[in-house]
């Protein structure tokens, strides 16, 4: 893996005294810091090198699976000079519906999810004393203009990437990184889930997904309706003031993790108005929420194999927000805002905003082209919307 070593002393915060006791082995291995690339807030990937001579691959580090697969022949994999031997991986012959630039996946979930019962790479790294602690952690920066766009620490955590202390919750079912959520609320009056709320932290899923009835209730609180043509929920941004959209709060391990309007909407200029696409969609898993990258880019996450727990803390990038045109939301002094921007189109035919080119198609006609799903979400639709979102900033 193309990465740099960091001192193992930075792997836990002084306020997280329990974390400092995780290591049960005494060796001189140090944590590994892998810089990540933000692919337009759709997914974050890093580079690994495999083979002799080494061949580089852009990989999606995925806490929602356990296998390593790449478009390659069988060979050894290495990390910053560390050679992980006897690592089984799959050779991908075909992958449909994904038009990103990632070459494959490196699974970081429990061995229970591994096909054929193979040992995941992270477990092999720890067993071979290549890292000091059986933990890893992610920082995702939602500002796609920043390089690097994030960070994966294998064997530790980076305390400079979050504020406060990590709030831990025990893994309830091994396989995925699954745990109990105390409650999910929209604003101060609407309870979306208050008992038996199960969730998984999944770096390989872009959106935040949940059970159908709860997702319907949550989006109803936002005024968003489902559109079968896109598979997404949306609402006219100008239907409310910016302050009129409620905060969405997940209470995990007794601590609140809140997303505000600019953190849970993808805003697209539809021509005559701005459309707010909700990042809350229906989960393909029964009665389980999937906290994907739109959650994890606001909250630092740590995964502890030895104590079977997940930790979350407020990311240093929590307050990042894209530029919002004054006419995007309803004015606080009028019933509806007036749109003054010039309608244009991007190179892929999606409706844009001033300073680009003229529109040729609508969002709706563009998103009808593909129905390939990634954990319940159409990748082509989502990727295209995010392209628009980034270009409008």
From TrEMBL:
Keywords: Aspartyl protease, Disulfide bond, Glycoprotein, Hydrolase, Protease. Disulfide bonds join 193-197, 237-276. Gene3D superfamilies: Acid Proteases (2.40.70.10). It comes from the Eukaryota. Residues 1-313 form the Peptidase A1 domain. InterPro entries: Aspartic_peptidase_A1, Aspartic_peptidase_AS, PEPTIDASE_A1, Peptidase_aspartic_dom_sf. One of its GO terms (molecular function) is aspartic-type endopeptidase activity. One of its GO terms (biological process) is proteolysis. Belongs to the peptidase A1 family. This is Peptidase A1 domain-containing protein.
């Amino acid at each position: 893996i193309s990465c740099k070593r960091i001192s193992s002393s930075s792997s836990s915060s002084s306020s997280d005294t329990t974390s400092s006791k995780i290591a049960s082995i005494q060796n001189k291995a140090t944590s590994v810091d892998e810089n990540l690339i933000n692919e337009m807030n759709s997914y974050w990937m890093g580079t690994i090198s495999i083979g002799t001579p080494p061949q580089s691959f852009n990989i999606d580090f995925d806490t929602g699976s356990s296998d390593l697969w790449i478009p390659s022949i069988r060979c050894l994999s290495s990390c910053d000079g560390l050679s992980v031997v006897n690592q089984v991986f799959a050779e991908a012959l075909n992958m449909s519906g994904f038009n990103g630039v990632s070459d494959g996946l490196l699974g970081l979930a429990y061995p229970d999810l591994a096909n054929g019962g193979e040992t995941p790479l992270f477990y092999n790294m720890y067993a071979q004393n290549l890292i000091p602690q059986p933990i890893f952690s992610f920082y995702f920066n939602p500002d796609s203009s920043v390089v690097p766009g994030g960070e994966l620490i294998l064997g530790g955590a980076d305390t400079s990437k979050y504020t406060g202390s990590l709030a831990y919750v025990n893994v309830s079912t091994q396989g995925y990184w699954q745990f109990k959520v105390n409650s999910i609320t929209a604003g101060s009056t609407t309870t979306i889930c208050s008992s038996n709320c199960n969730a998984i932290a999944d770096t390989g899923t872009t959106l935040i997904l949940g059970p159908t009835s709860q997702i319907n209730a949550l989006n109803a609180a936002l005024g968003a309706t489902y559109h079968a043509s896109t598979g997404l929920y949306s609402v006219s941004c100008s239907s409310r003031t910016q302050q009129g959209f409620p905060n969405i709060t997940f209470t995990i391990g007794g601590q609140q993790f809140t997303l505000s309007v600019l953190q849970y909407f993808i805003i697209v200029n539809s021509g005559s108005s701005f459309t707010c696409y909700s990042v809350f969609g229906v989960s393909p898993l029964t009665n389980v929420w999937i906290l994907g990258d739109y959650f994890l880019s606001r909250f630092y996450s740590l995964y502890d194999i030895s104590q079977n727990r997940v930790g979350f803390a407020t990311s240093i990038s929590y307050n990042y927000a894209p530029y919002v045109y004054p006419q995007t939301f309803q004015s606080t002094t009028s019933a509806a805002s007036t749109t003054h921007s010039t309608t244009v189109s991007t190179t892929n035919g999606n409706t844009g905003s001033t300073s680009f080119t003229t529109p040729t198609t609508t969002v709706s006609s563009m998103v009808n082209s593909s129905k390939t799903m990634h954990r319940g979400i159409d990748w082509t639709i989502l990727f295209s919307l995010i392209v628009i979102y980034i270009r409008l900033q």
